[in-house]
Amino acid sequence: MTVSTGVVLAAGEGTRLRPLTSTRPKPMLPVANRPILEYVLDALVDAGISDLVLVVGYKRDRVQNHVGSTYRGVPVTYVHQAKQLGSGHALLQAREAVDGPFLTVNGDRVIDPQTVGDALDAFDGTPTMAVRDHPNANEYPNGAVRLDGDRVTELVEQPDGPYRLINAGVYAFPAGWFDRLAATKRRDGDLYLPDAIVELAAERGVVGVRTEGLWVDITYPWDLLEATRQLLGAGLVDEQAHESGVYVHETARVHEDATLQGPVVVGPDAEIAAGVVVGPDTAVGRNITVEANATIERSLVGADTRVGSGATLCDCVTGMAGEIGPGVVVPGGETDVRIGTDIHERERLGAVVGDRVTLAGGSTLGPGTLLGVGATVGVGAIARDHVAAGAEVVR
């Protein structure tokens, strides 16, 4: 069955990615120097989708101003989810913009055309969802799946038994799906798309298709690092290849005595000084200055950031317009990270640095530190755990 419309759910904030999402919606966070949303839209267009509908909400102007009225020649329609009342509620907002069968994808997961194409190829008018093998399916927060043949028999958010498959967040639905979705039971006033799938799966009314395409779920800060690692490893970057695994934009300036250890990408107008070591698994964004003898590895450095001489950043995600002083140290490595009320054990995360943060010379960020927007860490000071937006840490 031919499907020409793709609906992208891009209204969420992504609270587990704060402070990065304090200033932009989750789909606009960069991985390998491009917003997550662009990878989603590319996957849809490359798979043959010719009409895009974007459901926007939190800081929607950031999405609309970036994408515009067309994407790669494909028309884009925007619908607004004024209140975030669940993924099913978000999809319902697209009801008037969709005519006929359609594809639905989450706007906050990095996917490739194969994942989309597998769902489209399997769709025959019966609701269809892409599933994939996952080594930790029992721990996956967005749903473990069990199949009987090609039929979904279970979709469980927090499973107890052994599961090997997870929900990939790519669905194909017939034209009448919105009526079924609207009738789904709410949870505390919220409507969730997986709940509609669960109800229909009880009637053996959902097809599950296995996919092995590129797929990275972005739920936590360290997922941004993993997505960048996979994208760089696959060569899925915009910048021109300088050598194997090394991608440098034509307007970037890299000193001949700097070392780029691939896979690595250097964005437009970036400047890398002598003695700097960048990489592996690192993305240096637009208009970034890295001063002499600094080291950046397994990190994402946001646009318009300055990294001072002799600084060391490992396993870091930084926002935009930061000032990282000389001799700053973020040692990185595995640590326990507190996100909200949950403790995530042995995650590889040096620090998450919000927009417009200042790290003065000689300061240090302990493993797993989260620095809010506009925070300051003074000369020689050590910051740990969570630092609120606008706060100052002194020695």
Automatic annotation (TrEMBL):
<keyword id="KW-0808">Transferase</keyword>
<feature type="domain" description="Nucleotidyl transferase">
    <location>
        <begin position="6"/>
        <end position="231"/>
    </location>
</feature>
<keyword id="KW-0548">Nucleotidyltransferase</keyword>
<dbReference type="GO" id="GO:0019134">
    <property type="term" value="F:glucosamine-1-phosphate N-acetyltransferase activity"/>
</dbReference>
<comment type="pathway">
    <text>Nucleotide-sugar biosynthesis; UDP-N-acetyl-alpha-D-glucosamine biosynthesis; UDP-N-acetyl-alpha-D-glucosamine from N-acetyl-alpha-D-glucosamine 1-phosphate: step 1/1.</text>
</comment>
<feature type="domain" description="Mannose-1-phosphate guanyltransferase C-terminal">
    <location>
        <begin position="246"/>
        <end position="330"/>
    </location>
</feature>
<comment type="pathway">
    <text>Nucleotide-sugar biosynthesis; UDP-N-acetyl-alpha-D-glucosamine biosynthesis; N-acetyl-alpha-D-glucosamine 1-phosphate from alpha-D-glucosamine 6-phosphate (route II): step 2/2.</text>
</comment>
<dbReference type="InterPro" id="IPR050065">
    <property type="entry name" value="GlmU-like"/>
</dbReference>
<dbReference type="InterPro" id="IPR029044">
    <property type="entry name" value="Nucleotide-diphossugar_trans"/>
</dbReference>
<dbReference type="Pfam" id="PF00483">
    <property type="entry name" value="NTP_transferase"/>
</dbReference>
<dbReference type="Pfam" id="PF25087">
    <property type="entry name" value="GMPPB_C"/>
</dbReference>
<dbReference type="GO" id="GO:0003977">
    <property type="term" value="F:UDP-N-acetylglucosamine diphosphorylase activity"/>
</dbReference>
<dbReference type="InterPro" id="IPR005835">
    <property type="entry name" value="NTP_transferase_dom"/>
</dbReference>
<keyword id="KW-0012">Acyltransferase</keyword>
<keyword id="KW-0511">Multifunctional enzyme</keyword>
<protein>
    <recommendedName>
        <fullName>Bifunctional protein GlmU</fullName>
        <ecNumber>2.3.1.157</ecNumber>
        <ecNumber>2.7.7.23</ecNumber>
    </recommendedName>
</protein>
<dbReference type="InterPro" id="IPR056729">
    <property type="entry name" value="GMPPB_C"/>
</dbReference>
<dbReference type="InterPro" id="IPR011004">
    <property type="entry name" value="Trimer_LpxA-like_sf"/>
</dbReference>
